[in-house]
Amino acid sequence: MTAKSPFHIIGIMIDSANNDNEILSRRIHYNLLYDFYSPLLTERQRKVYETLCFSDLTLSEAAEILGVSRQAVYILARNVMDKLEGIERDLRLAFSTRQLEDRIKVLEAENESLRKKLNEKETERPCLTR
Predict the structure, then answer these.
(1) Which of 57, 66, 107, 110 is positioned for an S-S bond with 61, CB 3.0–4.6 A?
(2) pTM for this model (two decimals)
């Protein structure tokens, strides 16, 4: 039997993730939220998240490192995830950043397309000599 990821263990993924892509997507989502909002977490909350998620440890392993019970790790981890989601609901920085990044990609693609068209038109023009 293989060990489940911390996200499975603490119940983040079980309810709605049906496949590995969804699990990976959720993991990326929470890591992105953590990147944005970790300064708003307490040192203890950061330690729990990092120990459990970045080290990919089980609840028991994390509990041993943190010096608390498995149940305490579970509760602390759920609280951190809930807090990250709550901050994102209020501030929407991660969502806005993703939208801006998507828009930048579209604009870069349009810019490249226009650049190619301009180069094609310049090469089609006959050279004028005196």
Answers:
(1) 57
(2) 0.74
